[in-house]
Amino acid sequence: MLEFQNITKIYESKNKQVVGVDNVSLKINKGDIFGIVGYSGAGKSSLLRCVNLLERPSNGKVLVDGIDLTQLSSSELRTARLKIGMIFQHFYLISQKTVGENIAFALRAAKTPKNEIHKRVKELLAMVGLTDKEDVFPAQLSGGQKQRVGIARALANNPSILLCDEATSALDPKTTLSILKLLKQINEKLGITIVLITHEMNVVKEICNRMAIMQDGKVIEEGAVYDIFAQPIKPLTQEFINSVVSFEIPDEILKDVKGQVIKLLFKGEVAGEGVISDTMQRFDVKGNFLHGTIEYIQERPLGIFVMELQGEKSTVDEAKKYMEQRGAVVEVVKHV
Amino acid sequence: MFDFPYFITMLPDIWKAFQETVVMIGIALAISIFIGLPLGVLLYVTDKGLFWENRFVKNIFGFAVNLVRSIPFIILLVALFPLTKILVGTTIGPVAASVSLSVAAIPYFARLVESSLRDIDKGVIEATIAVGATPWMIIKDVLLPEAKSTIIRGITLTVISLVAYSAMAGTIGGGGIGDLAIRFGYYRYDNTIMISTVVILIIFVQLIQLIGEQFAKSLDKR
Ligand SMILES: Nc1ncnc2c1ncn2[C@@H]1O[C@H](COP(=O)(O)OP(=O)(O)OP(=O)(O)O)[C@@H](O)[C@H]1O
Ligand SMILES: [Mg+2]
């Protein structure tokens, strides 16, 4: 488990202080794939870098499996870092060393016996799908392949945590997907906790189970990805969610709509269409779909529909109440 | 103007002078790499934000380097006569000249090494820190390999500077090509020797540049 307790990071530059992270407390459970989202400068990297103390927090504690890293001596810290893998947006491989040597470097840092290194390098290369690239230099690899080497290096010493700082931001969408798949596989097979930073909601939707949203150094919202996608609370969170599941109905259309416009949310097992058609039969209201989709987040369906309801106000209200009873979350987008 | 038969008769002298120059430069280069490389690394890793950050050490060595570099070579040469006398026993000859050449080249090369290391992406260093590597591993397997090509270019530059300095050292007893040029070309208006030495130096420097560059390129895997 990874726990941030009141982490604050203040950067002292020449004549002013910049608050990178502002009193963040966060718990990340073992086996989680935890996404941290936020705009540039929100403090995501600063927070992540406090985990392996690439950045020392100005205040607060980071507990990795119950151990406060800030209290360790420098050699103890090095040992602790062996168990915290990290990958980066720009990969940061040693350019003058082959892929195999880059991975072996991490193994040597852990004082792996010489005769075991090569075997382990082969294993790691197989895991990331680069078996034939052992003797190649990083410059000859594509971005996706470089990131795979980065992942192999990070996993070399069987870490319990993998930190990913914008690990897919330099990659095209297809390569991004393949790297995300690999990360998910690693999480499932090896049980490694993954903390990943991104500004792309798609990445979170793809693989994270929990997430936090950061703004101005603070965590403003935190929870299960599914719940946050279903009902984002803070405006910034809504903005991020809208970037992947957008339900903005153009004003042009809203203007011409005569009835009440509502947004319906069906979580998980509740079959949205069934509820809606039952409602239409039971009540004297006319329904008109404006928008609708079923998103799968963490393999759980999330039905979202925007519709116009026409009819007597009291009947419309009763219909809404009925849908709520059947498990829908009803939100009025526009009153009559 | 260029007296070819005379040139042929002078060849043994020219060859001897060339050898002296090579000895001077060779010794000075070996010493400046041996001391300047660790010094350059030290200047870099004690810098702000690096793993052996140490303002005190950085300032002391930085000051010493700047001090030597701010003294004109011709003055350094004379000022180091006592030291040379202690170390070599004489102030005459190429070996004696190599003392002051080394003293001048060490800080020069150290600064070149430091700036080569500065060119390395800090992210690469951080990534290896995150992996749990020791400072020694980082110096040996990250800093030096990553800066290898630029350090080799630095060696080329140092040799070329040494060629220039060696001519100066030659004039006050060091021997070598510079000595030859001054004795014959300057004091005796001997154009043949003058032209020969200039041509030899030009070829020598070009050759070093060419070899250094080829070598640096062939080692770079980027
Ligand atoms: N080394 C540093 N020195 C001074 N200020 C810094 C330093 N690193 C980060 N900051 C500041 O701290 C704040 C948070 O930066 P951080 O890099 O953590 O943001 P981020 O969310 O990772 O942004 P991005 O998405 O651009 O990577 C910013 O205001 C930034 O300018
Ligand atoms: Mg960042």
UniProtKB/TrEMBL annotation, chain A:
SUPFAM superfamilies: ACT-like, P-loop containing nucleoside triphosphate hydrolases
Family annotation (InterPro entries): AAA+_ATPase, ABC_transporter-like_ATP-bd, ABC_transporter-like_CS, ACT-like_dom_sf, MetN_ABC, MetN_ABC_transporter-like, NIL_domain, P-loop_NTPase
A GO CC annotation given for this chain: plasma membrane
This protein's record includes keyword Translocase: yes
UniProt record similarity statement: Belongs to the ABC transporter superfamily.
PANTHER family in UniProt: AMINO ACID IMPORT ATP-BINDING PROTEIN, METHIONINE IMPORT ATP-BINDING PROTEIN METN
Protein's name in the database: Methionine ABC transporter ATP-binding protein
Lineage, opening ranks: Bacteria, Bacillati, Bacillota, Bacilli, Bacillales
From TrEMBL, chain B:
Presence of keyword Transmembrane helix: yes
Protein keywords: Cell membrane, Membrane, Transmembrane, Transmembrane helix, Transport
Alphabetical GO biological process terms: D-methionine transmembrane transport
Gene Ontology cellular-component annotations: plasma membrane
Subcellular localization(s) per the UniProt record: Cell membrane
PANTHER family: ABC TRANSPORTER PERMEASE, D-METHIONINE TRANSPORT SYSTEM PERMEASE PROTEIN METI-RELATED
Entry protein name: Methionine ABC transporter permease
Source organism of this protein record: Ureibacillus sinduriensis BLB-1 = JCM 15800
Organism classification: Bacteria, Bacillati, Bacillota, Bacilli, Bacillales
